[in-house]
Amino acid sequence: xxxxxxxxxxxxxxxxxxxxxxxxxxxxxxxxxxxxxxxxxxxxxxxxxxxxxxxxxxxxxxxxxxxxxxxxxxxxxxxxxxxxxxxxxxxxxxxxxxxxxxxxxxxxxxxxxxxxxxxxxxxxxxxxxxxxxxxxxxxxxxxxxxxxxxxxxxxxxxxxxxxxxxxxxxxxxxxxxxxxxxxxxxxxxxxxxxxxxxxxxxxxxxxxxxxxxxxxxxxxxxxxxxxxxxxxxxxxxxxxxxxxxxxxxxxxxxxxxxxxxxxxxx
Length: 266
Ligand SMILES: C[S@@+](CC[C@H](N)C(=O)[O-])C[C@H]1O[C@@H](n2cnc3c(N)ncnc32)[C@H](O)[C@@H]1O
Known about the structure:
41% helix, Chemotaxis Receptor Methyltransferase Cher, domain 1
């Protein structure tokens, strides 16, 4: 079927394009993944090979397709209260270091928004309505669009404690049965924007940065670049949360470990 085969040369072109745009290196064994995710584009665009698709991507005006290609090749798995011990640690940091007002929090690879809204729920629990926002970014415009819709299947929301579900979410009715929606107040507490982690961050400083389950997709050189950008985005005192399967050991030494996958700026 169209899009089910990609030659070595075509794969290299797409992998080079994706590496230049996102920093992520697609190894040869990812050929099937690339076909699985991009074959729909060939069909929709009426193209008969990846060679034609690459030509289409290279047309200067086709920026929308280049974004779409990046979106489809990134891995966006996420859910509410993922690796939930981290939210207990976050509450500890609130109590210990940020007694007067909420810290600036940046969710730096937020995917479809579940992690950012989880952070907003935790911040609201601790500081109330207050004058705070959670910043949240991703490279994928498609994911950011989903995040801004804030509608999720109940399956993705199954880790939200019942009390928080009642306080911060609305149950879908009619054709939205089986979905929840983040309530209006929480919705306005999260600011989503597009950001490439490899580009130095020019927004304001962030005291606490969640960068979970993203570094794992990068090679060491790119990890170091990203971590340098993260380091510079923090004030003197700052805390970094990674995914539980990620570590800075042997990669970057300007943070010290303070709990599993939690680091403090040195
Ligand atoms: C697996 S998701 C992690 C979502 C969430 N942090 C979590 O732990 O549940 C990884 C996210 O990193 C994003 N990403 C990949 N490369 C990126 C880059 N260069 N800049 C910003 N985000 C990137 C992807 O689009 C994807 O949404």
